[in-house]
Amino acid sequence: MSIRCKLCGLTTLDDISAAVRADASYIGFVFFLGSPRNLEIQAANLLLEATPKHVTKVGLVVDADNNFLDRLTSSACLDMLQLHGNETYQRVAEVKARYGLSVMKAVGISNLGDVRDAQHYGEVADQLLLDAKPNSVSDLPGGNGISFDWNLLAGSSWKVPWMLAGGLNPNNVASAVKLSGARQVDVSSGIETAPGKNNAELMSEFVMQANV
To answer: Is the pLDDT score of 140 beyond 70?
Structure first.
């Protein structure tokens, strides 16, 4: 069984082409002003149109209100919304019902209590993204290049599919998969040469190493 890879924070048509060549299963598009990977909706549409149908197109938002989500979902042809803020269980269920799209909820992990909290989100989300909790000085909820103890996930049970994130790169993703038991992985900063600047060779190497 192959490991499904999500390449997140892509911003150019060259990025899309490279991700498709690398055999990405998901491509993530960031809609968060605080991120160097942020996209305007109109710019994102050009990238979405260039993404093949077999690749799942994920829109990452952070505590977005209905006004923004209305604009985003009415204009952009997304397959999934990734809620990467402090959204409650109720908010996740509301977004899923309102927009009729699959919803992935990102949850920060640093201890076993966080793992239990994430499992509860499996009652309302279609998928979970288990990321490292940002440190106290970070302005970003994710994409910070930091990881958590992957052993915390070993042997855990889940109601929905989950994806491992946080500090992954071509050099450590194989170990992360082995220790955590992940069947899906997410990368952002680990395929960049600078924030928001993706590298085709790193994309290809990441997917390859995830499937070693």
So the answer is: no
> pTM for the full model?
0.92
List the CATH code of the domain at 4-210: 3.20.20.70
What is the chain written as a DSSP string? -PPEEEEE---SHHHHHHHHHTT-SEEEEEE-TTSTTB--HHHHHHHHHTS-TTSEEEEEESS--HHHHHHHHHHS--SEEEE-SS--HHHHHHHHHHH-SEEEEEEEESSHHHHHHHHHHTTT-SEEEEEEPPPTT-S-SS-SS----GGGGTT---SS-EEE-SS--TTTHHHHHHHH--SEEEESGGGEEETTEE-HHHHHHHHHHHT-
User: How large is the average pLDDT for residues 171-186?
Assistant: 97
The whole-number pLDDT of residue 92 equals: 98
Q: 41-49 vs 66-75: helix axis angle to the nearest 10?
A: 30
